[in-house]
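The data are quoted verbatim for completeness:
=====
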Amino acid sequence: MIDFGKTEELPTRALVRELLEMIDEEIDELGIRPFMQPIDDILAHGTGADRQLRVYDANDGDIKAVVDHLIAETKVGL
Protein backbone atom coordinates (compact mmCIF):
# COMPACT_ATOMS: atom_id res chain seq x y z
CA MET A 1 0.00 0.00 0.00
CA ILE A 2 1.08 3.57 -0.49
CA ASP A 3 1.70 5.87 2.46
CA PHE A 4 0.96 9.16 0.76
CA GLY A 5 2.35 11.15 3.70
CA LYS A 6 5.73 9.47 3.28
CA THR A 7 5.26 8.94 -0.48
CA GLU A 8 6.48 5.37 -0.23
CA GLU A 9 5.16 1.85 -0.47
CA LEU A 10 4.78 0.06 2.86
CA PRO A 11 3.39 -3.29 3.96
CA THR A 12 -0.33 -3.16 4.71
CA ARG A 13 0.24 -4.45 8.24
CA ALA A 14 2.57 -1.54 8.99
CA LEU A 15 0.00 0.98 7.78
CA VAL A 16 -2.81 -0.64 9.75
CA ARG A 17 -0.68 -0.60 12.90
CA GLU A 18 0.12 3.07 12.30
CA LEU A 19 -3.57 3.88 11.88
CA LEU A 20 -4.46 2.01 15.07
CA GLU A 21 -1.79 3.95 16.95
CA MET A 22 -3.22 7.22 15.60
CA ILE A 23 -6.72 6.41 16.86
CA ASP A 24 -5.70 4.64 20.07
CA GLU A 25 -7.12 7.35 22.34
CA GLU A 26 -10.43 7.37 20.48
CA ILE A 27 -10.67 3.58 20.75
CA ASP A 28 -10.61 3.94 24.53
CA GLU A 29 -12.98 6.92 24.54
CA LEU A 30 -15.51 4.92 22.53
CA GLY A 31 -15.01 1.83 24.69
CA ILE A 32 -14.43 -0.40 21.68
CA ARG A 33 -11.03 -1.87 22.53
CA PRO A 34 -12.45 -5.42 22.91
CA PHE A 35 -13.82 -5.17 19.38
CA MET A 36 -10.37 -4.30 18.05
CA GLN A 37 -8.86 -7.61 19.25
CA PRO A 38 -9.59 -9.49 15.99
CA ILE A 39 -7.56 -6.87 14.12
CA ASP A 40 -4.64 -7.34 16.51
CA ASP A 41 -4.92 -11.12 16.11
CA ILE A 42 -4.79 -10.87 12.30
CA LEU A 43 -1.80 -8.52 12.44
CA ALA A 44 0.02 -10.89 14.79
CA HIS A 45 -0.90 -14.26 13.30
CA GLY A 46 -2.23 -13.60 9.81
CA THR A 47 -5.58 -14.46 8.30
CA GLY A 48 -7.19 -17.86 8.17
CA ALA A 49 -5.73 -18.28 4.70
CA ASP A 50 -2.24 -17.51 6.05
CA ARG A 51 -2.67 -20.15 8.75
CA GLN A 52 -3.91 -22.71 6.23
CA LEU A 53 -0.89 -22.10 4.00
CA ARG A 54 1.45 -22.55 6.97
CA VAL A 55 -0.21 -25.88 7.81
CA TYR A 56 -0.06 -26.93 4.16
CA ASP A 57 3.66 -26.08 3.92
CA ALA A 58 4.48 -27.66 7.28
CA ASN A 59 2.85 -30.91 6.16
CA ASP A 60 4.49 -31.17 2.72
CA GLY A 61 1.34 -30.20 0.84
CA ASP A 62 -1.00 -32.58 2.67
CA ILE A 63 -4.46 -31.09 2.16
CA LYS A 64 -5.90 -33.46 4.78
CA ALA A 65 -3.75 -31.71 7.38
CA VAL A 66 -5.32 -28.42 6.32
CA VAL A 67 -8.82 -29.88 6.66
CA ASP A 68 -7.95 -31.28 10.10
CA HIS A 69 -6.64 -27.85 11.07
CA LEU A 70 -9.86 -26.17 9.90
CA ILE A 71 -11.95 -28.65 11.88
CA ALA A 72 -9.87 -28.01 15.01
CA GLU A 73 -10.15 -24.22 14.58
CA THR A 74 -13.89 -24.47 14.05
CA LYS A 75 -14.35 -26.49 17.25
CA VAL A 76 -12.59 -23.86 19.37
CA GLY A 77 -15.16 -21.96 21.36
CA LEU A 78 -18.10 -24.20 20.55
Summary: Residues 1-46 form one domain. The beta strands are 2-3, 8-9. The radius of gyration is 17 Å. The chain has two domains: 1-46, 47-78.
